[in-house]
From TrEMBL:
Superkingdom of source: Bacteria
Record's keyword annotation contains S-adenosyl-L-methionine: no
This protein's record includes keyword Hydrolase: no
GO molecular function terms listed in the Swiss-Prot or TrEMBL record: DNA binding
Keywords: DNA-binding
Pfam families attached to this UniProt entry: YjbR
Source species of the chain: Amnibacterium setariae
SUPFAM superfamilies linked: YjbR-like
Protein name stated in the entry: MmcQ/YjbR family DNA-binding protein
């Protein structure tokens, strides 16, 4: 069964996330599970646009970026109320950050995307 599209193609926040993510070397966008996923070509994903939490207090975060963070950064990030543990990917070390507010720090978003990209990129790109 195909997943329904869970984002608006004309979303200006998505456009900004795309601008930052697709500026990284050899990056492509693919649609999966109804959401835009960003990959280093031929490699696992390093970011997803939009997510939610599961459990009794399920919360949707349609304008968020989900990234894979380093294990040593995870505890500090979880102390920050802007971050959330996304469904399915959270147990694998991923965290989400809402990026639709006027106070969004796009430099921080770029740094998070870059760090997650580095976890996925092959050594030849990291050199």
């Amino acid at each position: 069964m195909e997943h329904p599209i869970m984002y608006d193609e004309h979303d200006p926040v998505l456009a900004r996330v795309r601008e930052v993510a697709l500026a990284l070397p050899e990056t492509e966008e693919r649609l999966s599970h109804g959401r835009p996923w960003f990959h280093v070509v031929g490699r696992p994903a390093f970011a997803v646009y939009g997510s939610g939490t599961k459990g009794p207090e399920k919360v949707m975060h349609p304008h968020s970026v989900v990234v894979h963070v380093d294990d040593d950064e995870r505890p500090a990030r979880l102390q920050d109320p802007r971050f959330f543990v996304p469904s399915y990917l959270g147990p694998r070390g991923w965290l989400g950050l809402d990026v639709d507010g006027p106070d969004t720090d796009w430099t921080e978003v770029a740094e998070l995307l870059d760090a997650s990209w580095r976890r996925s990129a092959p050594a030849r790109l990291l050199r």
